[in-house]
Amino acid sequence: MLIKDSDDIKSSEITDEKNYWNRRNFIRGGVLAATTTATGLLYRGLNPPNREVKKLDPVELSAKQGYFTAEGEAANDFADITNYNNFYEFTTTKEGVARRAKNFVTRPWTVEVGGLVHKPKTFDLDEILKLAPLEDRVYRFRCVEAWSMVIPWMGFPLAELLKQVEPMSDARYVKFFTLYDPDRMPNQKTDVLTWPYIEGLRLDEAQHPLTLLATGLYGKMLLPQNGAPLRLVVPWKYGFKSIKSIVKILLVRDEPISAWTDAAPDEYGFYSNVNPKVSHPRWTQATERRIGEFGLRDTLMFNGYGDQVASLYSGMDLKANF
Amino acid sequence: MDIKFAKFAVFTNAAVPFSLILWDAFHHRLGTNPQEFVLRTTGTLTLVFLLLTLAVTPLRKLLGLPWMVQFRRMLGLYAFFYGCLHLLSYTWFDKWFNLRAIAEDTLKRPFIFLGVLAFVLMIPLAVTSTNKMVKRLGGQRWNRLHKLAYLAPIAGVLHYYLLVKADTRLPLAFAAALVVLLAYRVLNKFFPAFTQRKPKRAAA
């Protein structure tokens, strides 16, 4: 390296000390601002954006005043229900489903109902919507991950649909299938679960008046992240039993293997009734966090629907049949 | 190299996620399940800083930049700091300071046990991180104790892996990074010619 002789530099060209420090501090400030901004953006980029779905408009908000459970619990915010979803067909991050599912097209849509039935039939969605009067049902929804919400569903009892196809006498279980279409449900290209998502109920569970075929919530059509256009709601079971975006329903003789049972048989049983006394191997089910509340609530047996459903399981060991 | 300023810049940057969590909490922008978000994010940050701490030595040797060692203690202490926040979130939001329930959880569930273990392993490292403690222990003993810095992230990554329901991609990514960082130590022991570069002459 050529080192210039100091004679080459005129004393007038030497930066005076004050300017030298000013310049130095200016650069330092710049470096600090640039790096912290970059770190901040990295943090923001790695954390899912908040709130894809905004609040309900005032008209819809006023309708909300009427949504309470029979026990007087107020429904969760529309934004909470539509921005926090387990729907692995789109992504495994709950906060990211709303954005990933935004452009999911649900028309046209048909549901094939068959198996051990006298009148198998493929229903168009519009037919299903006219099958029975749509009613509002405000249910507690308890996720196996120990959080819960109160959701004002809209739909009709699944029993109404089953009546249409006339189950045969040897049909004992109902098996449900979510749509399998990796182009429309991009996370189906991964193998985080076995696709299509499958769920099952015992026939008497499926015919229970609480078991709902939901087509909407908050009085309007379901959004994709909530399982549009048609999903199951079984309020006394953990949320993953309430299968979304159903395309096929079969009546079968043998107990179906659900997607989560298939993934981890020792963690997710066929029944998966909400039960504070049977803990998940990795966390307790005795308490839950109601979304919107800071503390924890005690989880209720059958999610508080014991009066209506406990008789379905009389004489059964619910620890063994978890 | 203006090491004092560089350290200040690293310190400030490492505090950015914490500041943003506080900022978002203040503005109610932590999402639908804020408690879960804080718990999850502080856990991830703990792992990130444990790995950054482990990355200092390989980077320093590969790039021949000896002054980088000056960041190591700070990054390690940040890992401990985020680890404390993570443990506090669990103790508060998930257990409501019910120490009995925490003890039961720790003994019954391997993933909680590993998390607690990772945290406990970090305590002696944080306590003996001061210059005074290095002197008091003596370099050799201090070095031997601080080999725990390899065990804590192993327990931490396992803790993360065992916790997820089905999508193990992110924990596996952390595991891969950890394997690379640990493999460097092994390689460095046997083939230092490939894993080190002579430091450049210090710039005037």
User: What kind of assembly state do the chains in view correspond to?
Assistant: heterodimer
Would you tell me the overall average pLDDT of chain A?
A: 91
CATH structural class of chain A: Alpha Beta
Radius of gyration of chain A: 27 Å
Into which percent range does the helicity of residues of chain A fall?
A: 10-25%
- For the record, the CATH architecture of chain A stands as Alpha-Beta Complex
**Secondary-structure-derived class of chain B:** mainly alpha
The string of secondary-structure elements of chain B, in order, is HHHHHHHHHH
CATH topology of chain A: Sulfite Oxidase, Chain A, domain 2
Largest sheet of chain A: 7 strands, mixed
- The chain-level structural class of chain A is alpha+beta
Q: Which spans of chain A have pLDDT < 50 for at least 5 consecutive residues?
A: none
Main interface by residue count: A-B, 37 and 29 residues
Question: Could you explain how this protein is built, in words?
Answer:
- The complex is a heterodimer of chains A (322) and B (204).
- With 322 residues, chain A is an alpha+beta fold.
- Chain A has one domain: Sulfite Oxidase, Chain A, domain 2 (Alpha-Beta Complex), CATH 3.90.420.
- Helices cover 23% and strands 20% of the residues of chain A.
- Chain A contains 9 helices and 12 strands.
- In chain A, the strands form 2 sheets. In chain A, strands 3, 4, 7, 8, 9, 11 and 12 form a 7-stranded mixed beta sheet that branches. In chain A, strands 2-1-10-5-6 form a 5-stranded mixed beta sheet.
- The model of chain A has no long low-confidence stretch (mean pLDDT 91).
- By secondary structure, chain B is mainly alpha-helical.
- Chain B has one domain.
- Chain B is built from 10 helices and no strands.
- Chain B is globular, with a radius of gyration of 18 Å.
- The termini of chain B are close together.
- The chains are: A alpha+beta (322), B mainly alpha (204).
Provide a brief overview of the structure.
The complex is a heterodimer of chains A (322) and B (204). In chain A, 23% of the residues lie in helices and 20% in strands. Chain A is of the alpha+beta class and 322 residues long.
